[in-house]
């Protein structure tokens, strides 16, 4: 078989599984402090020496490790495979290799052919119901989302002046990474994080690091029922999880809860016109939404219409934050 760019794409899931396996076996963490010879690494990771040698050779070809005179070392490209590294993909890779996620991607054909999320076709229930019944996977999901948000939180508070906010409500705020950045940048604001009980379970330590407990509240709840009142309402990575009808319910709850002078900020990738290279991140994320939740990424026009149908006017949109595809869409109640 000729190894063309198309071959590389076709075997993309093999690449994903190689990275997942390295992370699952603890290879990047073992190399974090410095290079190690393969024999030592096999002992540290409790692996078969020959099998690990083949994995290391594949990781070398992918450019995430390199051979030095002191043994195998992580490259710059490979460093985000470690947990705690800025922009870490550690939790995301563990998540991608989870059997339920693996099965969901294997059901993309069903989602394209008959609609609905591939996850539901594969597992028989929606992703968030599945997470509610699997605390380990829920923790992983929450950590992976928080790591992604950590990449944009600093850029967010630099791009949008949050200092005038009185009550900031982060809807579906996950592990609190975004709200923590806002509370640090807006010392007079009070923060409320709404998420499901399992989603919010790990938010307190993140928020405690940013601000004393009197400055924030964790509100376990369902954003399809109601959301807490505030003058700055954040929806990051929420609307893209849901279809237009479900987004309408969330947005109408936000419209009821927002102060007359308030602002609703939607942080999402936006699908640009055409399918040039700049569209890749948003378009790939759109397919991930089709697989995982049945949601979708949207164009500016689609967001404008969605917001207008729930009593919001789209008033501004930023450039993508940092190296990500996430933009801030500002909406005012009307
Ligand atoms: C894609 S994650 C985004 C998390 C966070 N906003 C971020 O960007 O890092 C979606 C979040 O919505 C939460 N969620 C899902 N359904 C919910 C519901 N019905 N009510 C409240 N939270 C929900 C999940 O627990 C999860 O934390």
Automatic annotation (TrEMBL):
CDD domains referenced in this protein's UniProt entry, alphabetically: AdoMet_MTases
InterPro entries on file: COMT-like, COMT_C, COMT_dimerisation, SAM-dependent_MTases_sf, WH-like_DNA-bd_sf, WH_DNA-bd_sf
GO molecular function: O-methyltransferase activity; protein dimerization activity
SUPFAM superfamilies according to UniProt: S-adenosyl-L-methionine-dependent methyltransferases, Winged helix' DNA-binding domain
Residue span, O-methyltransferase C-terminal domain: 105-312
An individual GO BP term: methylation
Domain O-methyltransferase dimerisation, chain residue ranges per copy: 9-79
PANTHER family in the record: O-METHYLTRANSFERASE CICE, PUTATIVE (AFU_ORTHOLOGUE AFUA_4G14580)-RELATED
Name of the protein this chain belongs to: Methyltransferase
Native organism: Winogradskya consettensis
């Amino acid at each position: 078989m000729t190894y063309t760019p198309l071959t590389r794409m076709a075997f993309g899931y093999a690449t994903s599984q190689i990275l997942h396996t390295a992370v699952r076996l603890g290879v990047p963490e073992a190399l974090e402090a410095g290079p190690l010879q393969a024999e030592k690494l096999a002992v540290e990771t409790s692996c078969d020496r020959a099998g690990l040698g083949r994995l290391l050779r594949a990781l070398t070809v992918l450019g995430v490790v390199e051979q030095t005179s002191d043994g195998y070392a992580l490259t710059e490209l490979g460093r985000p495979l470690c947990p705690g590294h800025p922009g870490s993909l550690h939790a995301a890779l563990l998540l991608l290799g989870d059997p339920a996620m693996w099965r969901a991607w294997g059901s993309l054909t069903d989602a394209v052919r008959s609609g609905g999320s591939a996850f539901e076709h594969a597992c028989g229930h929606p992703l968030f119901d599945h997470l509610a019944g699997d605390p380990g996977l829920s923790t992983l999901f929450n950590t992976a989302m928080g790591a992604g948000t950590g990449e944009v939180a600093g850029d967010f508070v630099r791009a949008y002046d949050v200092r005038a906010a009185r009550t900031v409500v982060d809807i579906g705020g996950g592990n609190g990474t975004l709200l923590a950045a806002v509370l640090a940048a807006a010392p007079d604001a009070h923060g409320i994080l709404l998420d499901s009980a399992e989603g919010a379970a790990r938010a307190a330590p993140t928020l405690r690091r940013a601000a004393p407990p009197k400055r924030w509240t964790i509100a376990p709840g369902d954003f399809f029922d109601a959301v807490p009142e505030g003058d700055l309402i954040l929806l990051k990575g929420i609307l893209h999880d849901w279809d237009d009808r479900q987004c309408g319910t969330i947005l109408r709850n936000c419209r009821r809860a927002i102060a007359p002078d308030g602002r609703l900020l939607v942080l999402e990738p936006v699908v640009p016109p055409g399918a040039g290279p700049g569209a890749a991140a948003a378009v790939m994320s759109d397919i991930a939404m089709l697989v995982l939740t049945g949601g979708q990424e949207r164009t500016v026009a689609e967001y404008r219409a969605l917001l207008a149908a729930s009593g919001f006017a789209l008033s501004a949109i930023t450039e993508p934050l940092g190296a990500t595809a996430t933009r801030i869409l500002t909406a005012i109640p009307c």
